[in-house]
Every structure is written in C-alpha cells, then in structure tokens.
Amino acid sequence: MIRVTGLGKSFTLHNQPGRDGQGAVIPVMAGGHLDVAPGECVALVGASGAGKSTLMRMIYGNYLAQAGSIMVGDLDVARAEPRQIIALRREVLGYVSQFLRVVPRVPTVDVVAEPLLTLGVDAAEARARAEGLLARLNIPQRLWGLSPTTFSGGEQQRVNIARGFAHDYPALLLDEPTASLDATNREVVLGLIEGAKARGAAIVGIFHDEAARDRVCDRVVDVTAFTPGLAA
Ligand SMILES: Nc1ncnc2c1ncn2[C@@H]1O[C@H](COP(=O)(O)OP(=O)(O)OP(=O)(O)O)[C@@H](O)[C@H]1O
C-alpha cells in the first residue's frame, strides 16, 4: 500500500551561506526505502534528528523529494500534482500529527466530522460517527459543542485522533499518537490502531512509547540507515 524506494532529500537553507555562496545544503536522506502492506503497522525508529519526521512529511507530500518514489496506493507522491495530493489526503491517506491545528470557533464535533463531510457522507451519519469517537476517547459531551482551541493538551490530542480515525483511510501516518495520554486513553488509541489494522489499513508511525510500539507494530524500520553520514 505504501512503497518508498530510493528516496533522497536535502534542505537548502537560503538564509545561511554554503560553500559556494548560495544557501547551505543539508543532505538528510539518501536511499530511503519502506514497504507497508495493508493491515501492517511499521514503526520508524532512529536517533533524534535521523529523519523520522522528515520521512513522514515526505510521504504526506509536505516535503518534496529530490530523488526516488513514494507510492501510496497507485499515486507517486514524489511526482504528484497538488490536486492529486489533496485527493489522496481526502480519500486514501490520513495523518494524525502531534498537534491539533483547527480553524478557531469551529465546534469539536464538526472538527471531527469534517473529513467525512468532505467525502460526501450524510451529515447525520458523519455527526454520529464523530460523536461515537469522541465518546470512545472520553471527551466529555459538554465539550463537543465548543472549539477545541482551549482544550488541554491531552484533550486536543484525542480530538486530533478522533478526526484522524473518522474516515476509514486505507493508509495512515501516526506521529506519536499516545504521547500525552493517560493510561485509559492510551488504551483506547491502541485499540483504534488495532482496529484499523484489522480492517486492512497500512500504518506508518513514530512511537517513542516503546510498549505501545511493541504492541501494535509488526516491524521497525531504522531511518538511520538512510541518514547520510550516519548509515553503517
Ligand atoms: N524544514 C527543515 N529545514 C532544514 N532542515 C530540516 C528541516 N526539517 C528537518 N530538518 C533537518 O533534517 C534532519 C532530520 O530531522 P527530523 O525532524 O526528520 O528528525 P527526527 O528523526 O524526526 O527527530 P526527532 O526524533 O528529534 O523528532 C535534522 O537534522 C533536521 O535539522
């Protein structure tokens, strides 16, 4: 479902001079590869700065690749047009980032239902699904009609997770999905991940929570192998 081959990436820092007087060029990835089958969860590991987040952002199409291909379903994200990436994110590839970014004043239940509404799901059905996820993630009902902007860190993370699991995406990227959660909610999130795997989602995640990683991930991929200057 997700197949990355020969991936290369460098950043050019335009405000910091390099050797040739142009921007400094920082190579961060060479020969990156990854294969994730439907129903499989793969954890990205490696030292801080090795490139885990960079690889996730490249798969999501936020960072442009300089070399290689990133197949998600039948789309090569490395060569796709913006409109194809937007369609991919709507239908195929979900992303639960560490932090919730929302338009102010939109009620929580609408934030969670939005990915379904965008797909054309009936409003009542989308709302019911959103409410079910919020309840499962222990967000008190009195908060559903409020914007999540004033919620606690853990509440915002759970709203983010509810939104990320609202649609049954065939592929999912998870960035530290259990980071600021208590034991009860951590368990709920692990259950959601297991459920997504059981219905055939291909998942790539960054988990600093090793017990969570061991429980839900089938394999780990050490991105240090793709880090220029660090690879063995
Ligand atoms: N937008 C950017 N511009 C320049 N350099 C960047 C940018 N994003 C990441 N980098 C560099 O790429 C390298 C990999 O960073 P990345 O955030 O992917 O590491 P990571 O493995 O996710 O680290 P951590 O575990 O600390 O989050 C780092 O050296 C970082 O400085």
Description:
By secondary structure, this protein is of the alpha/beta class. The protein has seven helices and nine strands. The chain has helices at 52-60, 82-91, 108-118, 123-136, 153-164, 183-198, 210-216; strands at 2-17, 23-36, 41-45, 67-72, 75-76, 93-96, 171-175, 202-206, 219-222. Strands 6-7-8-3-9 form a five-stranded parallel sheet. It has a four-stranded antiparallel sheet with strand order 2-1-4-5. Helix 3 packs across helix 4 (123-136). The longest helix has 16 residues, at 183-198. The two termini are 28 Å apart. The mean pLDDT is 93. Residues 11, 26, 28, 46, 48-54 line the site of adenosine-5'-triphosphate.
Mean pLDDT: 93
CATH superfamily: P-loop containing nucleotide triphosphate hydrolases
* Sheet with most strands: 5 strands, parallel
Q: What structural category characterises the helix and strand content? A: alpha/beta
Tell me the radius of gyration.
18 Å
Assign the CATH class. Answer: Alpha Beta
Known CATH architecture: 3-Layer(aba) Sandwich
Key terms:
232 residues; alpha/beta; Rossmann fold; five-stranded parallel beta sheet; four-stranded antiparallel beta sheet; globular
